[in-house]
Design goal:
five-stranded antiparallel beta sheet, alpha+beta, four-stranded antiparallel beta sheet
Length: 568
């Protein structure tokens, strides 16, 4: 039976050369056996495995020709299945193999000769480019009274219930109240989003304002000694069915100008509030509005006039060093003063100690963000993988707290990048989404969408990457990844066109030339392949070794053009 199967079976794999998708390598295997091979007293199966260069085998899957698992095609038992196995750099030059296994009722086995189904793994999807530019909070400390503080407190859809959840901003308000800054006036302005659930819920904005006012007064009465409820002037306002905040978010979003104008035309046009919202639902941009704009319009904004306790500038740095060295009380400086002191030294280790002290004492979002950035910077300089992962984990911890206390696009972007580099794909995607929902300047939103698209590409979510790249602008990473995406979707002509536009702007970019060489190889344009590969290696000589191992060029490995491209 084993001999008959070995001689007559047909086993194929698609694709013939495997390609990584995310962290996995997908493959479809189909097998057809000779007629009348299968018998009741024997079981036949096919094991599929991947054999790396050094002989290490990974089990991929199996095809079990049991009754009900297969069909008959031309009278022959036929079945197929989709598999995937984890990618590792050591597997690039291996082989996907299949081997038949005959088992009798007693468990004895006979194996057919193993057959090679596919040679090696293509890694072109890993050419993805990222921006990854998280930022410190700028310390603009001045020894003078500043303007009022503003805290937008966010609510869930249709609710006026306060919650201490992720991104609500309530913790930051709580921290300020307990800091005992002398406060003279508190204003609360509450509103709602334009969707029907929010507009039809009775007195929603007013109930949100009351919930925040009660929270503040209860905190002042029970946890504060420098203020009283009677000494503070409270002013409560609500906005019902008002488009002002909505239009501000839309014009401060990553939507294309054409779509922004469509929204403005509806909002500024005729019709009632609900009629206009129904018209918005027909726009191609409505999914963006529902996901990234409406959630951040469900808020009550708290504006606080206060008088900080001032200190002379020359005392700050010396006092910070004394606090770090445990020679002064931790609360001898304010949070702002401690954070400012950290900017006065270029040493990351000293910055870290000062920010750690500021975090331990005040837990301010600025100190948390900047401490996270110190860990992130240290991780970028670290060559030991385990130590780098530990530093990134510390960065994530602090950046998460910072984003929780100050939900802004930059803070969630910082957190997303740290998750991205740490390998936490789901957490990173969630944080990228949170960043977009906060709104912000167009450059930062395009930066967020660009890196979000890069992550979606890296995990194989190509359709999601298409949507993100539509809002990512024309930066280098966005243009490169769009050309790569066209290539991965096998639109080689479109990919080449985008690659040429990229090179027109970045003519000395080695990665762009390498991608163009790969596109030309797939398009069977040998001269263009050699030209771009030669230019890539000239700019970045280490790409020569990559090209030799790259199966994209397997058809040209023995050609004169490929050999010429590798020469310095």
């Amino acid at each position: 039976m084993a001999k008959k199967a070995e001689k007559g079976q047909t086993i194929t794999a698609q694709p013939e050369v495997l390609m990584v998708r995310g962290n996995q390598v997908p493959v479809e295997v189909q097998a057809q056996l000779p007629k009348n091979l299968l018998r009741d007293d024997y079981r036949y199966g096919i094991r599929v495995f991947y054999k790396a260069e050094k002989g290490v085998e990974d089990h991929v899957g199996s095809l079990g020709f049991d009754f009900g698992n297969y069909n008959f095609v031309d009278g022959k038992p036929t079945m197929g299945s989709s598999f995937s196995f984890p990618y590792a750099p050591s597997k690039i030059r291996g082989q996907l193999m299949a081997q038949g296994v005959v088992s009798d009722a007693k468990g004895r086995k006979k194996f057919t000769k193993a057959k090679v189904l596919a040679q090696g793994i293509i890694t072109t999807p890993q050419l993805i480019q990222t921006m990854h530019a998280p930022a410190y909070v700028e310390e603009d400390f001045k020894n003078e009274a500043k303007g009022p503080l503003r805290f937008p407190i966010y609510f869930d859809q249709g609710l006026a219930t306060l919650r201490q959840g992720y991104g609500t901003n309530l913790q930051m308000l709580d921290d300020f109240i307990r800091s005992n800054q002398k406060t003279s006036k508190i204003e609360i302005l509450a509103t709602h989003s334009p969707d029907q659930t929010e507009t039809t819920t009775r007195n929603l904005a007013a109930r949100r304002a009351v919930a925040v006012e009660r929270f503040i007064k209860q905190k002042i009465e029970t946890e504060v000694y420098n203020n009283t409820v009677s000494s503070i002037d409270f002013n409560i306002e609500t906005l019902q069915k008002n488009w002002g905040a909505f239009l501000g978010r839309v014009q401060n979003s990553a939507l294309p100008e054409e779509q922004i104008q469509q929204i403005l035309a509806i909002v500024n046009g005729p019709g009632s509030f609900s009629e206009k919202e129904e018209k918005l639902q027909t726009l191609p941009s409505y999914d963006y509005l529902e996901m990234y704009v409406y959630p951040v319009l469900r808020y009550a904004q708290v504006t606080i006039d206060y008088q900080p306790n001032l200190r002379r500038d020359y005392e700050i740095y010396l006092m910070a060093k004394r606090i770090v060295e445990n020679r002064a009380n931790a609360d001898a400086l304010t949070a702002e003063e401690m954070q400012y002191a950290a900017t006065l030294t270029p040493l990351l280790a000293e910055k870290k100690r000062i920010y750690e002290s500021a975090v331990e004492t005040y837990m301010s979002w600025q100190a948390l963000n900047n401490l996270g950035m110190v860990f992130f910077e240290q991780a970028q300089k670290e060559l030991r993988p385990k130590v780098k992962q530990t530093l990134l984990a510390s960065a994530i911890l602090n950046l998460r707290y910072a984003a929780h206390r100050q939900p802004q696009a930059q803070q969630f972007y910082n957190l997303a990048v740290a998750h991205h580099q740490h390998g936490d794909a789901l957490e990173a995607l969630q944080s990228y989404d949170y960043a977009i929902r906060q709104g912000g300047s167009l450059p930062i939103l395009q930066q967020v969408f660009s890196d979000k698209a890069a992550l979606e590409l890296s995990v194989g979510q190509y359709d999601d990457a298409v949507r993100s790249l539509a809002y990512a602008g024309k930066g280098y990473a966005a243009q490169f990844n769009l050309a790569l995406l066209y290539f991965l979707k096998e639109n080689y002509e479109g990919a080449a066109e985008l690659g040429e536009k990229l090179l027109a702007e970045y003519p000395q970019d080695a990665n762009a030339h390498y991608l163009m060489a790969v596109i030309a190889a797939r398009s069977q344009k040998e001269d263009a392949m050699a030209q771009h590969l030669k230019q890539a290696i000239k700019i970045k000589p280490t790409l020569a070794g990559k090209a030799i191992d790259d199966l994209e060029f397997r058809k040209y490995h023995k050609s004169a053009a490929f050999a010429g491209a590798l020469k310095p």
